[in-house]
Amino acid sequence: MEDNDWLEALADLPEFESYGASNDEDIAHIQNELQLELPSSYVGFLRKYGCCDWDGNAVYGYYHGEGELREYYDVVIRTKEAWNDRFPKTFLPVPRNSLVLMSYGGGGFYMLACGSHPSPGSVFLILTETAHRIDDEWESIGTFIKEEFLA
How many CB atoms lie within 10 A of CB 137? Predict the structure, then answer.
């Protein structure tokens, strides 16, 4: 698969559903609210799907709507919740140079490194059971999606 083939392949996953492509205004809203420069690969995802889910998984993004579904799918809400949650003092802080791409079912977050991160565009998993230490890393969102969900 080429680097952006993962975008097309997502739609073939079981029970895949997307919730409306994002426009420039939606993308600017996310960047302004989080004060992050979004990686181009994630902008491409937003422009195609906005946010999506499949088979019990969800990639957060921009959700066009209100209510519980917005609270669930909205990357701004999910990221600010993670940044501001009160974890024990022994936990590393949730990095503010990254956004919450997905939640990890066992407790934790798949984080997307953004502009000021040393590896912008990479994805990393932080777990609550390891006090937010990095458990796994992928060089890009495409590599992460391909290895974890399309393999």
Answer: 14
